[in-house]
Amino acid sequence: MSGLGVAMVGMRRRRWDRLARMARTLAVTFSFLFVFAVVAFAQGAPGAGNQNSNERQPNEPGRFDFYVLALSWSPSYCAASAERAPNRTPDQQCGGRPFAFVVHGLWPQYDKGFPSFCQVPAPRLYRGIVDANLDLMPSPRLIFHEWDRHGTCSGMTAAAYFEAVRKARAAVTIPAEYKALERPTMVSPGDVGEAFVKANPGLPRGGLAVACDSKWLSEVRICLNKDLSFRDCPELTRRACRRDRVAMPAVRGG
């Protein structure tokens, strides 16, 4: 074979070698793409755990498990406020008519944890709604805050949410001894919890938590189903006040 023929054979061989390498590269690439497509399809299947599944997304309005109705002992709040800022003019809650237990909020909850600030900015809260709820929550600032942080997670309009607040409050009976406490007293958080259980048939002892700070009893928090019936809530009760005795200031004027 002439030198030219040998050179042509060598060129063809090199060309086939390049084509073979390209073919192997394409085969590997298509294999990778096929595996990637199979994995992506599996992850996108119902129940696979991505955003197309039924798994709850954090802070999704209307997607929660139950409510907590937080009832604040207003005299404790006012006493603490006066201690922190003795020269400040009392706010509406502490400077107007006397209050005993008032609504702090109605909080959507997960079985573990809770959503908050589910719509930013929050839908507008009209002044008429605020004024209509001052008998339950005697502070406009509190009402605005509770709507922004908790109400937006209910999935309701503002009017419907505060109607639910009113219904939740009506579902709970305040024990007679705490409706108008005439003298400051030291109490056991457990005794306060038992008084609420006794005053509310169907309320389980594991369905509420009494909260306190270092000095005063601050709140009673009661767990409610979405239909506002009572329920257990072990996550909440584990965070209850553990002090033996705490103070309950008297209702102002008492």
Describe this protein's structure.
- The chain has two domains: 1-55; 66-248, Ribonuclease T2-like (Ribonuclease Rh, Chain A).
- Strand 4 (208-212) and strand 5 (217-224) form a beta hairpin.
- It has 254 residues and is α+β, with helices and mostly antiparallel strands.
- The chain is built from eight helices and six strands; from the N terminus they run αβααβαααβαββαβ.
- The chain has helices at residues 3-44, 74-84, 92-95, 127-132, 140-149, 158-170, 189-199, 234-237, and strands at 66-73, 101-109, 185-187, 208-212, 217-224, 246-248.
- The strands form two sheets. The protein has a four-stranded antiparallel beta sheet. A two-stranded antiparallel sheet has the order 3-6.
Strand content: 5-15%
Broad shape: elongated
Mean pLDDT metric: 84
Task: Give the CATH topology of the largest domain.
Answer: Ribonuclease Rh, Chain A
**Helix proportion range:** 25-40%
Number of strands: 6
Question: Low-confidence segments, ≥5 residues, pLDDT <50?
Answer: 3-9, 28-54
Top CATH class of the largest domain: Alpha Beta
N-C termini distance: 122 Å
Number of helices: 8
What Rg, in angstroms, do the CA atoms define?
32 Å
State the major sheet.
Answer: 4 strands, antiparallel
Summarize the structure.
This protein is an alpha+beta fold. It has eight helices and six strands.
What features would you highlight for this structure?
8 helices; alpha+beta; 254 residues; four-stranded antiparallel β-sheet; disordered N terminus
